[in-house]
Amino acid sequence: MVTEKYLAYDLVIFGTKGDLARRKLLPSLYKLEKTKKLNKHTKIIGVGRANWNKENYSEMVHEALEKFMNEPIKTKFWNKFRKKLYFCNIDVNYIDHFSKLKKMFDQKNKTIINYLAMPPNTFGMICKGLAMYNLNNISSRIVMEKPIGDSLKSSQYINDKVGKYFKESQIFRIDHYLGKETILNLLAIRFSNSLFIHNWSNKNIDHIQITVSENIGIEGRWGYFDKSGQIRDMVQNHLLQILSIVAMSVPLDLSADSIRDEKVKILKSLKPINQKNIKRKIILGQYSEGYINNKLVPSYLKEFNANIKSNTETFVCMKININNWRWAGVPFYLRTGKRLPIKNSEIAIYFKNTPTNLFKNSLKNIPQNKLVIKLQPDEGLYINIINKVPDIDSTYKLKEIKLSAKYSKLFKKKTIPDAYERLLFDSMIGKQALFVRKDEVEASWKWIDNIINAYKKIKLKPELYPAGTWGPQSSIELLKKDGRSWNIC
Ligand code: BG6
Fold first, then answer.
1. Ligand 1 centre from 430 Cα, in Å?
2. pLDDT for residue 336 is more than 70
3. Whether the predicted pLDDT of 107 surpasses 90
4. DSSP for 416-478?
5. Which domains are assigned to the chain?
């Protein structure tokens, strides 16, 4: 008899016909099947208003895998996977519908993971429905997708609604950037290399840059995006999470709470950006028509379903300071935008210059050392260092060289798991370290609320930038004024 390595659980996907489930969740679950991480007694229960049976649901899942998975479906794994698929016809607006779900669980005390891939205004109702039929006992979990609100107040409202029925230890808030391999590696790089541990502060670091660029536009999501904008859609969650991991102090251990305790300290130490300083700290942009990969693309205002008068930002650049001993005086420059030239996420850490230059004759200004961590798409890192060019001549000739470590070369045989694959798996085994705690969500919204209020008050408008460029010129000037420039991606 083959013993199963992982426990069986039931995974319920609310919003299973939606984009997220079809694009990300279902392909990730199939891959978990392939790598034998799903117990044979595990059930995957899609929830929706359609009047479907198991067969209809399997067809939909198969279509989604064909369309969105970056590899062919193998019959051997599909046959095992499809046996796990079930469908439950529920309209979450009707509390008595949840009785149908209750009937689908065959085993007492089996862990139930409820994945809420639906708009946040439904979270409260879903949790109430689950609780009504005692589906919120201690072995049940809730996995919540962003956005958790659009302000501190609305996020507290959602968190309180969910918190009424589920304890914090049962709630898994997803920020899919936390599931990316290179973000996890950031902890390893920072806390297992003494070379970095002892240099990771204002003593030796001059400044830090975080870039998350995308070349795609709004992709049919204009309605959602226009209400949100790049600050709420990307900065409040992904970029602040990256920043908090880059800046946090050494955690006590690798437990969820130790890591999150340190991250939240950073979020609470961000210097406020307000009406007085916002013009010096923030640049907003909106893309106009331009070229991406030699193809003409429309402006934000001419996208499908757009409101021609919108002032929503599709680009933001920020200069952030952290009010603590480690980071006093070290600016963090963040930029993120849609329709930039390439998809690229990276963190560039610039170290301070040498106190004097012994090699003036060869190099007037010695470039700063920098460590660049590439989050995606070309995962890896490189360090720029200054080296002597080999020569018989006794006068020094210096050159900046790049020591590069690309995952694709270093770990040829390893496939890098998708962020959702890892996060789904962690939610199943109950590991919360890569999920966002309530106080983190609140601290980041509190800081973001100030910014949004400030730019609304002073009526700060986004500057136009042509699609296919690195945002408004003033985002380049922002660093130039400080004698710095963006790392060339
Ligand atoms: C999502 C945002 O959270 O992240 C999208 O809502 C964005 O607007 C996406 O495109 C980017 O994720 P990734 O993993 O492709 O960098």
1. 25
2. yes
3. no
4. PPPHHHHHHHHHHHT--TTS--HHHHHHHHHHHHHHHHHHHHTT--PEEEETTSSS-HHHHHH
5. 9-145 (3.40.50.720), 178-419+439-480 (3.30.360.10)
Q: Ligand 1 atom 2: the closest Cα is on which residue?
A: 233
Whole-angstrom Cα distance, residue 98 to residue 206? 56
| Ligand 1 atom nearest residue 376's Cα | 16
246 alpha carbon – ligand 1 mean position (Å): 20
Distance CA 218, CA 191 (A): 37
Sheet with strand 171-173: strands edge to edge: 85-89, 43-48, 9-14, 111-116, 140-144, 171-173
Q: Measured from the CA of 419, which atom of ligand 1 is nearest? A: 14
Q: Please indicate whether residue 233, judged by its CB atom, sits closer than 6 Å to ligand 1.
A: yes
d(CA 430, CA 32): 16
Between 224 and 489, the more confident residue is 224
Instruction: Say yes or no: CB of residue 313 within 6 Å of ligand 1.
Output: no
**What residue type is assigned to position 447 of the chain?**
W
List residues with catalytic annotation: 238
C-alpha angle with apex 159: 23 to 7, nearest 5 degrees? 55
Nearest CA residue ID for atom 9, ligand 1 = 234
- Establish whether residue 226 lines the binding site of ligand 1, counting it when its CB lies within 6 angstroms of any ligand atom: no
pTM of the entire predicted model: 0.95
Quick check: 11 and 113 in contact, CB under 8 A? yes
Atom 7 of ligand 1 has which residue's CA nearest to it? 234
Given a cut of 90, is residue 437 above it in pLDDT? yes
Ligand 1, atom 8, residue with closest C-alpha: 233
Cα four-point dihedral sign 252, 175, 148, 241: positive
